[in-house]
Amino acid sequence: MKKILGFVLVFTLLIGAGTIYASGNPGQNLSQWYKNAFHKESEKLGAATATGMILVLKEVNVFVKESKKSIDDALASFRDDKVKEAESGIEKYQADTINSLNATVNKLENVNFNDYVDKQNIEAQIDQEFEKMVEDVFSE
To answer: Which residue pairs, CB below 8 angstroms and at least 24 apart, start in 67-70?
Structure first.
């Protein structure tokens, strides 16, 4: 009797399960499962993409900051080099000018201005005498 009762109970359970399963639309169940799975994977992909973009943007920000610092350093170095070049050029020009002035002063100190004035006076007298001679020659 227990065997029969167990058999009837198992048979009834199987028929009920088949009826419940058959009453649903298997295509609809599969479609719903696919939508849920797709939605979960889309959320995972979206989260991974957002995280990846945030990491990339952070790396780009670090790169930009490092590049800016590097460019600032290069510009400062370039500016310092050009200032040093200009200063050394000015100092060289100043030294050349001072040397030239000193050489001129030495030459002028060695020149006897009295002799120069006397020479100029002699030349002026010669010019006057020559003009007088020419005048005398043409006036006769």
So the answer is: none
∠ CA(75), CA(80), CA(84), 5° rounding? Answer: 150
Alpha carbon distance 105, 99 (integer Å): 10
86 CA to centre of own chain:
24
Residue 18 CA to residue 55 CA, distance in Å, equals 52
User: 69 is written with which tokens?
Assistant: 């610092």
**For the whole model, what pTM was predicted?**
0.44
Mean pLDDT of 30-59: 88
| Sign of the dihedral defined by the CA atoms of residues 123, 128, 129, 131, in that order | positive
